[in-house]
Design goal:
About 40% of the residues lie in helices and about 20% in strands. The protein has 14 helices and 18 strands. The strands form four sheets. A seven-stranded mixed beta sheet has the order 12-13-14-11-10-15-16, sandwiched between helices. It is globular. Bound molecules: NADPH dihydro-nicotinamide-adenine-dinucleotide phosphate.
């Protein structure tokens, strides 16, 4: 059994089983047996089951959000959005089984038709920073395409995934179609990589573990989707609406206490407005409300663990602190929003993913300099460009090497649009209409006309 801790006060909430190899194998084999029946369920019936699942998530939205507030320290506003996102993603992909159409391609001597076949068992490995949405982005399209799913939540945050598994069964998903397996990454997660019945692994987490998953999957030519780290740039040009950009900057990096792969943790400001922008940013950072996450006013809660807090503190030690916000005293893993002035691009806090509420700032000269600095990273997940010049917005959008960009906004995730990273931020895309096909193999069948 593993204790589950409330990061806002350090108390033990409950404990959950930590499954071993034999139990993991049994669950994978049960998912393999269930696949034969699930892929045969008529598309309309599969769609109805997913819609029923979505409706149950909606009916339990407050309960799921409450679990996430306690287990992950997410603010209640964020946790409600996250449970709603699972519902919406299920609803979105519930439209897919009846639209999973192939093509007919005219060829000499007959006709070629393509089918999109489900893969089999899909293994989903979820991190602790967004336990609900990341689970849903994997299991909803995987199930819609006719696969069965085994899902491993992070050891630190298993509660909402376990509840979602129960709601799936209550919705009528047959036994073995969607199974949540709490346990260690090195045991349960690793078995998804090595068990031959698992035909695809969706992994979200650190780049380091992602690389080992990719290498492991190569052994069985297993399909893999990787959503990994980020060090995204928030680029503010002198011609931007500086007030709006400064008002938006704190949430773009401190949301979820900065434990967000999309966090805009590098702020690049054009040198001619650098001082003015920092003067606008300081009151916005100081006003960012770091409170007990159950409070409806909270904009940020605690970090996930003592270990995460000491890792974040290590990046701030010895750095040039421009200003900080506030955080509650007392129990729990609290850390205030912190803005650091980078001395150069060699600073560790500028280069590495901090995964905490820390923003690093650097000025740039011109467009070319901004592109050079933004791309000077191994990562390429998200980013924002603030300018009133449409031509510049287009040029920058082409030049910045990042899978998700926003102009005059800091939004990254919309379930209608593809989400994923370039460079070491990942492989493959989740969400949007095309994600469904990544849970299928396309087969072409030639029908001779004589
Ligand atoms: P980890 O990579 O350590 O863990 C992620 C998940 O993988 C957990 O469920 C973990 O299990 C499991 N795991 C760990 N080791 C293995 C293994 N050898 N084989 C199979 N599974 C394994 O990352 P964190 O949970 O610490 O998350 C933080 C990192 O993840 C950050 O770098 C962040 O940027 C990145 N991330 C990226 C996201 C994206 O969308 N691009 C989203 C969220 C996070 P266990 O809980 O037992 O350790």
């Amino acid at each position: 059994m593993t204790d589950v801790i409330n990061p806002a006060d350090g108390t033990v909430l409950t404990s959950v089983p930590s499954l071993g190899l034999a139990e993991t194998d049994a669950a994978i084999e049960s998912a393999q047996r269930a696949f034969a029946g699930w892929r045969q369920v008529a598309p309309g019936d599969r769609a109805r089951l997913l819609r029923r699942f979505a409706a149950l998530v909606d009916a339990h939205l407050d309960e799921l959000a409450g679990l996430e507030v306690r287990n992950a320290g997410h603010t209640v506003g964020n946790a409600r959005w996250e449970a709603g996102n699972v519902r919406d993603v299920l609803d979105y992909y519930a439209g897919a089984p009846e639209r999973l159409t192939g093509r007919q391609i005219p060829v000499a001597g007959g006709l070629d038709v393509t089918f999109h076949e489900p893969l089999g068992v899909v293994g989903i490995i979820v991190p602790w920073n967004f336990p609900m949405p990341i689970a849903g982005w994997g299991f909803a399209p995987a199930l819609a395409a006719g696969n069965t799913v085994v899902l491993k939540p992070a050891e630190l945050t298993p509660l909402t995934a376990i509840r979602l598994g129960e709601l799936g069964r209550e919705a009528g998903l047959p036994d073995g179609v969607f199974t949540v397996l709490p346990g260690k990454g090195s045991v349960v997660g690793q078995r998804f990589v090595t068990h031959p019945a698992v035909r695809k692994v969706c992994f979200t987490g650190s780049t380091q573990v992602g690389k080992s998953i990719m290498a492991g999957c190569a052994d069985q030519v297993k399909r893999v989707t990787l959503e990994l780290g980020g060090k995204s740039a928030n680029i503010v040009f002198a011609d931007a609406d500086l007030e709006r950009a400064a008002a938006s900057a704190p949430a773009s990096v401190f949301d979820n206490a900065g434990q967000d792969c999309c966090a805009r943790s590098r702020l690049l400001v054009q040198d001619s407005v650098y001082d003015r922008f920092l003067a606008l940013l300081e009151p916005a950072v100081k006003a960012f409300r770091v409170l007990d996450p159950v409070s409806p006013d909270a904009e940020m809660g605690p970090l996930i663990s003592a270990g995460q807090r000491s890792s974040v503190a290590g990046y701030v030690e010895g750095a040039d602190v421009a200003f900080t916000g506030s955080a509650p005293d007392g129990d729990g893993w609290w850390f205030p929003p912190t803005v650091l002035l980078a001395r150069s691009t060699a600073d560790r806090h500028w280069r590495e993913e901090v995964f905490g509420p820390v923003l690093s700032v650097l000025p740039f000269r011109d467009e070319q300099d901004a592109v050079r600095l933004a791309n000077d990273t191994a990562y390429g997940l998200s980013g924002s460009i603030w300018t009133r010049d449409l031509g510049r917005a287009l040029r920058m959008s082409c030049a910045v090497e990042s899978g998700n960009l926003s102009v005059n906004s800091h939004s990254s995730v919309r379930y209608w649009t593809p989400f994923g990273g370039m460079k070491e931020s990942g492989l493959g895309r989740e969400l949007g209409p095309d994600a469904l096909l990544s849970f299928t193999d396309t087969k072409n069948v030639f029908l001779a006309d004589s």
